[in-house]
Amino acid sequence: MRRNSSADAPASANSAPSPRGDWSTVKTLLPYLWAYKWRVSLALLFLVGAKLASVGVPLVLKQLIDSMSISPQHPAALMVLPVGILIGYGALRLSTTLFTELREFVFAKVTQRAVRTIALKVFRHLHALSLRFHLNRQTGGMTRDIERGTRGISSLVSYALFSIFPTLLEITLVLIYLSTHYDIWFSVITLVALVTYITFTIAVTEWRTHFRRTMNELDSKASTKAIDSLLNYETVKYFGNEEYEAQRYDEGLQKFEFAAVKSQSSLSLLNTGQSLIIATAVTLILWRATQGVIAGTMSLGDLVLVNTFMIQLYIPLNFLGVLYREIKQSLADMEKLFSLLDQHKEIADTADAVPLSVDHSKGGSIQFAHVDFSYESKRQILFDVDFTIAAGTTTAVVGHSGSGKSTLSRLLFRFYDIQGGAIRIDGQDIRAITQHSLRNAIGIVPQDTVLFNDSIEYNIAYGKPGATRDEVVAAARAAYIHDFIESLPDGYASTVGERGLKLSGGEKQRVAIARTLLKNPSILIFDEATSALDSKSEQMIQAQIKEIAKTRTSLVIAHRLSTIVDAEQILVMDKGRIIERGTHQQLLMLNGAYTQMWERQQNRSDERADDFDDSDVEVSAAYCTAD
């Protein structure tokens, strides 16, 4: 029975997530922090203790100053009282630092565990996203978003919980004390100044935020260009476009420079306005306090107390703009990080998905049942593709570029979901089984082999994590690459470079073959697996592939028809449809598309042989002339 989905399903599957708000971002973060309830609660208690001690310091200092005004007629009081107050002053100072450090000590694990948990969750989610997402992504920009997002979590917790909240708590305590012990004008001036300061800071910082966002976007774009250029180092060199790449990179840097200058200019405006508000408020407060001392309603200790309160309040407030900006920036960075988690999983296991069941000794039968597929809704790639690969047999697929051959392997791995029909392994629809068990049963040797920037041993062992050295060596021998590896100065510990660039195409392919042999899957896919090998190596590898394919189900995507003449079934594809099928001899007898491809390749082989003979004669003649 054919199953068809809506035409625009592929297009919507990778749609961008809707923008988040700041509170939505915070609500997403809170559960990760609240996982350690007792640590959070204890840290908050230490925070309150530190602020109470901090507010207590000016009060003790006031008592100390006032006590120094005792009349000389009372020498005993003069000796005893200041000593007790001095000890209390020192204890409060110590308590402020002690409680602060205890808060940091208790809360450190909460922050770092939240960063670790979220980063790991994002990493897992990215691997769970479809190939469509990863083909469209910009690696440089995305890695910067992840880096800034995880750093933003630490920054948000540090600034909001350990700077903003303590400052607000201290402001509350100071206002309560001023309103209950002094003229109401002290509280009024302080409150008006604080409201003006905070309003001005938030308004200007909000205005500046788009400068920071622009800087981040330009920074990500410049980073993307730089990384993309370095990853394609050889291509840049081939075309001599070093200066062109430098100009492209500099264009991004110029735009970033312009945005950074505007951001710094607006920061200067913010700092100047803050300083003006603070200076005005402190001047008015000290003026009222001085008037109180002259009138006899306040002591010198009161004057010092009020001044100390203002200093303690305005020192952290002086950084409010920076703190608010960093908090907003952290939220913006976290928004991008969490938006990656919001990316739709186009390919996901169903709730009742079960592991794939395959007889490993025989391989599994593969059935493409009337499959329709399109990467984009406006361009269909496969049309009613229908074929079966019997367990333990080899089926080859040939056709011109763009005919849909490689798409078959991607669908078999379930990198995409089909729009019509079904794909089954041993009668099990691959949409009803777990992706992990599906991909664990299939091994592939791709035409374009990409390796990790690690040792050769690591890249071979990647086919079976935890494999012993003997197993790795056995796989390398089977792929005829062991002798080459041993000839290297560092042997199996030799690094292959970024994407394996230190190895030739043939060496990379043999590493890929060794990796797949080590995996020992039930189903094998060879996507022109020997295209980069010389004739001698190709013959040896082909013999090895035939040997291991005897007990495996194999799908071979081929361009050179000479490599698949022994296949039990050959499918000829054109424009997403199977136009011919049969064995090599049966297809030649049809005298159709396969026969034409075979004759063209045979003619090219003959021409190459003739060219070789001619060049050999020319070389011999050259040596004769020299003699």
Q: What does this 3D model show about the protein?
A:
By secondary structure, the chain is α/β, with parallel strands linked by helices. It has three domains: 1-9 and 356-440 and 549-627, P-loop containing nucleotide triphosphate hydrolases (Rossmann fold); 18-341, ABC transporter type 1, transmembrane domain (ABC transporter transmembrane region fold, Up-down Bundle), CATH 1.20.1560; 442-520, Rossmann fold, CATH 3.40.50.300. 65% of the residues lie in helices and 10% in strands. It is built from 20 helices and ten strands. It has a six-stranded mixed beta sheet with strand order 6-7-8-3-9-10. The model is unreliable at 1-16 and 609-627 (pLDDT under 50).
Give a nutshell description of this structure.
By secondary structure, the protein is an alpha/beta fold.
Provide the spatial order of strands within the biggest beta sheet: 6-7-8-3-9-10
| CATH 4th-level superfamily of the largest domain | ABC transporter type 1, transmembrane domain
Helix-and-strand structural type:
alpha/beta
N to C succession of SSEs = HHHHHHHHHHHEEEHEEHEHHHHEHEEEHH
The radius of gyration computed from the alpha-carbon positions, rounded to a whole number of angstroms, is: 37 Å
- Tell me which CATH architecture of the largest domain applies here: Up-down Bundle
- Quick one: how many beta strands? 10
Task: Kindly provide the name of the CATH class of the largest domain.
Answer: Mainly Alpha
Strand content: 5-15%
The CATH topology of the largest domain is given as ABC transporter transmembrane region fold
How far apart the termini lie comes to 77 Å
